[in-house]
Amino acid sequence: MPEIESHERVNDILLGPLERPALQWFAAHMPAWANPDIMTGIGLLGAAVVFAGYALSNLDKGFLWLASLGLVLNWFGDSLDGTLARYRKIERPKYGFFIDRTVDSLSEFLVFTGLGVSPFMKLEIALFAFIGYLFMSIMVFVRTCVDGHFQISYGKIGPTELRVIIILANAAIFFFGNPQINLSFASVTIFDVFGLAITGGLLFTFVVSTIRQGRYLAKLDA
Which of 186, 197, 209, 212 is deepest in the core (most CB within 10 A)? Predict the structure, then answer.
């Protein structure tokens, strides 16, 4: 199995042509005291702001903007920690991989449970979406260990695109509301449908990727 130090980072996302130059610019202009650990902390703080924004949206939907701000902070810290380490040539591959992945899991827990405690999405649907995220995380981590590919994006979609989609959904709910759909067996909101779509997309990608990668590795080991 390949060492963590030699893994190949694959992040072929739709917004990559915009994100990569922006992150390089930020890395070049960050003050000396702003190290990768601080960036990781900012990312976690952003996730906590997301949770608070969604929780407070029970009082006023204007707090959706706070949740969106938290997503921007989360992107800034989570995306810049590794970029900053590589720019300054102060990488700590094993430590960085361990801390970044564990903090990411906690951050996503805060984001998804925040959605679940808001008045816009049922908690069980939000937790199903979180389970879908964990499935994909397992896929990414196992593949990193097996073939050295740290695959962040699938089908041009990665964490950055998911954040943008959620921010757009927040804005849509603020301006247009969150209509309820009454079915014969349940009542769901538009945001519930959105959560189910994310869950389905994550699980579908997990299953397809697992089958594809399993066939590839079976040929290598034949």
Answer: 209
Is the pLDDT at 10 greater than 70? The verdict is: no
Strands (E), the chain: 8-10, 149-151, 180-182, 187-189
What is the model's pLDDT at position 67? Answer: 97
Q: Is 63 helix (H, G, I), strand (E, B) or coil?
A: helix
Segment 102-106 long-range contacts (CB within 8 Å, at least 24 positions apart): 103/40, 103/43, 103/44, 104/43, 104/78, 104/137, 105/134, 105/137, 106/44, 106/47
Q: What share of the chain is helix, strand, coil (3-state, %, to 5)?
A: 75, 5, 20
**Candidate from 25-39, 94-108, 143-157, 197-211 with smallest mean pLDDT:** 143-157
Structural domains counted in the chain: 1
Residue 35 gets the label, from left (phi > 0), alpha (psi -120 to 50) or beta, of beta
Distance CA 102, CA 12 (A): 22
* pTM: predicted TM-score of the whole model, two decimal places: 0.90
Half-sphere exposure of 23 (CA within 13 A, CB side): 23
Quote the CA–CA distance of 82 and 78 in Å, as a whole number.
Answer: 8
Q: What is the pLDDT of residue 53?
A: 98
Q: What is the CATH number of the domain that holds 33?
A: 1.20.120.1760
